[in-house]
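Sample entry was shown:
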Amino acid sequence: MNTCIFCKIVAKEIPAHIIYENDEFMAFLDIRPLSPGHALVIPKKHYRWVWDVANLAGYFDVVSKVALAQRKAFGQEHILSKIVGEEMHHAHIWVFPSDKTPGNKNDFEGNKERLIETLR
């Protein structure tokens, strides 16, 4: 979809702090984070709703991988997720540590590096 911001991120037309990607999915830091490491996980193919994603099991495997990396990278047990989809018409899942997580939520480069290192 040529007007979808997330599709433009997948196509690398818009910059993003990408922390993980494979052939089907991508995870990147949210530009309005609720906590350090707040990420969005999206399918690379445009789907309107999370429940329409063809490989839902693979999608949730990536969400789990990101959540476990956040736990380790930020030393937090409490990782939250949220699926709504009304604010953006491209399937996405929010994954983020508790707002009690120490650190600067707007340190995109630092938070990106912490997560990438943990995801390796």
Summary: The radius of gyration is 13 Å.
